[in-house]
Amino acid sequence: MIRLYFLLLLTFLSLFAENSLVVKLEIKGAIVPASSEYLNEGIMFARDRDAQIVLIELDTPGGLSTSMREMIQSITNSSVPVVMYVYPKGAHAASAGTYLLYASHIAAMSPGTNLGAATPVTLMPSPQSGDLNSSVATTMEKKVTYDAMAYIKSLAELNDRNISWALSAVEESKSISAEDALKYGVIDLIAQNTQELLNRLDGRSVTISGKSITLQTKDAQIIDFEANWKTRFLSTITNPNIAYILLLIAIYGIFFELMNPGTLYSGVIGVISGVIALYALNMLSFNYAGLLLILLGIAFMVAEVFIAGFGILGIGGVVAFAFGSLLLFDADVIGSAVSIPLVVAFTIISLSFFIVVIKLFLNARSAKVVSGAEEMIGAAAEVIDSVENGYIVRCHGEMWSATSQSELIVGQRVEVIELSGLVLKVKPIKESK
């Protein structure tokens, strides 16, 4: 009996030993602060569960340099091996993605993918870019480029990867296919899918903090690490399209509240959207000129409604709004920008809003009053009776006390010219013959 228990225990332990753990993350789209937080949490999750590796499926056009450097620090200081895998077919690791591949302990790609074009891009590049001795702005660009070259070279030396190609990817914006990347020692291996990658990683040795680790990934259990609500929220609002929409909702909401005080709903929605939009803009690199053009465009469209500008202000407002929307985010800097169809849609909506909605609002404010004391002025009435201090007239179906500088007779039609308390001052209406 004891022997049987012992055999069962060994079987259980052997099964447990074979069932190693792999934590898988997916980083898709632009590299933003949410990406950095997601990666850092994923690495800590893998460390706490003694995972074999952190497997990151990567497909990115690039992104923010600050977020990229935070992610690289998390990777290089990780006690769990990090495998960066450009996947699926057709994916790419451009710009910041190239640095992430060079920083990872193991770099892999699937067929039909590419990486490169790692030249740093400033939000407002020099108009004389390319002339190495032209201006201070060009000097700053050179400093940024040289810093990026030194950075990627240090990553290449850290993980024994091709240094010369890494420098050309930064200096000349070169790109390379998966097959050539493997050929020139830019990556470690090519795999068709995740399972093939884990099979090929099995038994491979990785050095982490001077310690050699042999991977056991062939029959590993894969756990997909999901971002928490905070990271998902941050990822959503730092999407350039979402940040752009929130910004416009804030502008329209606050403007409508100022035009019609007391509605509250538009003001509250506008202020909340504005705070979130400002937070998102603070996280992203945005162009101040683009933001000013959007505000200027809205101001012109509003002025077109109030001022007879013969359409010039309206056309100028539309052009400024559209150009500002396109300039607000630079795809080369953050990896993506506001989509053109969205810009076109909001330009048309904005023009319609300020021409139609505000005109209706102004017409409503200038419409003739149909109730209250002001409505009595100019109203027609009929003399019903003559009394000691004046007359009794019927106006709007009601009896009123009235006075007149002219003598009136019963049945005569009069016009109200003044209201004093509950007494009307009237004058005769000349009957046309």
Summarize this structure briefly:
This protein is of the alpha/beta class and 433 residues long. The chain has helices at 2-18, 33-48, 65-76, 96-103, 136-158, 163-171, 178-183, 194-201, 229-237, 240-259, 265-283, 288-306, 312-327, 331-334, 340-366, 373-376, and strands spanning 21-28, 53-59, 82-86, 92-94, 106-109, 114-116, 175-177, 189-190, 205-208, 211-214, 221-224, 380-387, 390-395, 398-403, 413-420, 423-428. The protein has three domains: 2-230, 2-enoyl-CoA Hydratase, Chain A, domain 1; 239-366, no CATH class; 373-428, OB fold (Dihydrolipoamide Acetyltransferase, E2P) (Beta Barrel).
Give a description of the structure:
By secondary structure, the protein is of the alpha/beta class. It contains 16 helices and 16 strands. The chain has helices at 2-18, 33-48, 65-76, 96-103, 136-158, 163-171, 178-183, 194-201, 229-237, 240-259, 265-283, 288-306, 312-327, 331-334, 340-366, 373-376, and strands at 21-28, 53-59, 82-86, 92-94, 106-109, 114-116, 175-177, 189-190, 205-208, 211-214, 221-224, 380-387, 390-395, 398-403, 413-420, 423-428. 50% of the residues lie in helices and 19% in strands. The protein has a six-stranded parallel beta sheet. The termini are far apart. The radius of gyration is 36 Å and the shape is elongated. It has three domains: 2-230, 2-enoyl-CoA Hydratase, Chain A, domain 1 (Alpha-Beta Complex), CATH 3.90.226; 239-366, no CATH class; 373-428, OB fold (Dihydrolipoamide Acetyltransferase, E2P) (Beta Barrel). A hairpin with a 2-residue loop joins strand 9 (205-208) and strand 10 (211-214).
